[in-house]
Amino acid sequence: MMRQTRESKKLSRDFGWLAFLGVLLVIGGVVGLVYTGLATLTSMLLFGWLLLVGGLVGLLQSVQSRGTSFFWLGVVVAALNIAAGIVVIRNPVGSAEALTMFAALLFLTGGLFRVVGSLVVRGPQFGWTLVQGAFGLLLGILVLFDWPHSSLYVLGTFFSLALLFDGLGLVSIGFGGRRVVSMVSEAMEPDTAATPGRPPVQPPHRTGFQKPEGQDRSAH
To answer: How many CB atoms lie within 10 A of CB 207?
Structure first.
């Protein structure tokens, strides 16, 4: 019982830390939605450092696995990641403008393919696919018309929304997990816990040989 209690407390504490992390992400997402320019620069710097660190780790792994057929491929990919990370870190504004242009082109092409595909195929999800395509086209056009000024808020908005929804998911998982752990602990407690100061009742057992009651009556 004590072991189960310790495990329940540990699980509840872990879920509590998960909910706390979710709250921090939610706060970061809300702050990012308020200050979208700061969120854009922060996301670009984080992206650049991730590229740089990932490239250094990939280069180290390539050096450790030299002599294999994938050595030069790993070196080239690592070098490209390192170069891209340095460029993004040194010029986050220009990198944000380039990524915003790339995102707008993705919205346009994706929306165009969805609209054309929904009109040609006309499947069971025709209306939903058409709405998605039209929304992608509209979003891409709006971003392109306001470019490069749109690069100050588009990436930051997407980054902040991702933080917000991830944080809400972690909060729901954390509080839901703690509730489940408490319910399981309460359900198992009456079956395993004994009454304080009272020994558990042992089932009675017979000693010796006793004749059945029917045989005793027949003897009389």
So the answer is: 5
- Determine if the pTM surpasses 0.85: no
The answer to whether 97 and 148 are in contact (CB under 8 A) is: yes
B/e letters for 65-77, b = 16+ CB within 10 Å, e = fewer, are: eeeeeeeeebeeb
**CB under 8 Å, gap of 24 or more: what pairs does 68-76 form?**
none
Q: Are 36 and 157 in contact (CB under 8 A)?
A: yes
Listed in sequence order, the DSSP H helices in the chain are 2-34, 36-64, 71-90, 92-121, 126-145, 154-192, 213-219
CB atoms inside a 10 Å sphere around CB 167:
21
Measured CA to CA, the distance from residue 190 to residue 186 in angstroms comes to: 7
**CA of 74: how far to CAs of 50, 80, 84, in Å?**
17, 10, 15
Secondary structure class of 220 (helix, strand, coil) = coil
The phi and psi torsions of 66 (rounded to 5 degrees) equal -70, 150
Domains of the chain, by residue range, sit at 7-189
Please give the pLDDT value at position 92.
84
Rounded CA-CA distance 78/180 in Å is 45
Euclidean distance between CA atoms 118 and 116, whole angstroms: 6
Report d(CA 42, CA 93) in Å as an integer.
11
pLDDT, mean over the chain: 76
Given pLDDT bands bounded at 50, 70 and 90, which one contains residue 219? very low
Cis bond upstream, residue 200 (ω within 30): no
Q: Please compute the mean of the pLDDT values over residues 80-97 and round it to a whole number.
A: 86
